[in-house]
Amino acid sequence: MSSPHWMSLLRRVLLLCGVAIVAVGPASAQSTSSSNTSNTLSASESSSTSNQLVADSGLGDGEALSIAVAALGSGAGSGAAQKEGGGWRHGRFSPSHLAFEAGAGFNAPIGNDTPFITWGGNFTVGAGMHLSNRIATLIEYQFIDDKLPGAFVAAGGGQNGDAHIWSFTVEPVVDLFPKRANSIYVTGGGGFYRKVTSFTVDVCCDFYGYLVPEVANHFSSNQGGLNAGLGISHRLGGVYGDGQTKLFAEARYLFVDTPRFNAFTGPVPVGTTELIPVSFGVRW
Description:
Blueprint: H1 3-32, H2 37-56, H3 61-85, E1 98-109, E2 120-130, E3 135-147, H4 150-155, E4 160-175, E5 182-203, E6 212-236, E7 245-256, E8 260-262, E9 266-268, E10 273-283
Antiparallel strand pairs: 1-2, 1-10, 2-3, 3-4, 4-5, 5-6, 6-7, 7-10, 8-9
Helix pairs in contact: 1-2, 1-3, 2-3
């Protein structure tokens, strides 16, 4: 048998081996990753079809083998792209799911508390999770500092006074228009509240000759509380409305089942604390 005939036969054998590799490769990938079965089979079918078309086109055996190998490479590339696009690199969780907030503002007393507490300030920080682009859940720490009215302080035997409330609460936040740069949201929740009321008198004196406040009387209580509120937000950044950082302004109604203070008997087991905390801050 002549040498050219042997060379032609060898080229045909190599072509058949290439086709076999194309056919066997997807089957092997299928056994190692069941989640990519449909994509691997599609790549296999595409490669086999390309090889059949090349064989029918009358191209030389060397050229046909090169095209078959190129088709196999493109199939593998599409599988890698699918792996990347499917989010395997990031998994089911990413840092964008985390939620944070920080804010500060002022408080206004309402209801039966107006004779016993006056205006003050607040500070809030929180952290949690974005459950969706519309809903987040936060665990909040809030500190409230309010002054006491002069008549109430005098009845308690002091010259000055303040009420401190700190809390840990669970606060869902629902964004009503999550795709808009300017949105409205509702929030509310409840948890643990501690209130400390103190009366102070000024005594003389510190190193520089100034009067120094000294606690003359105080009482504290631990109890549960609830709050609910409404806010507006403005998204910062994001070309297509996908920015995470938002400025917010909100007002809440706060109800704490605290004991009422009586100047003669001290704390009694009835009474409430009602405030309207107004806060401004940032959330992401």
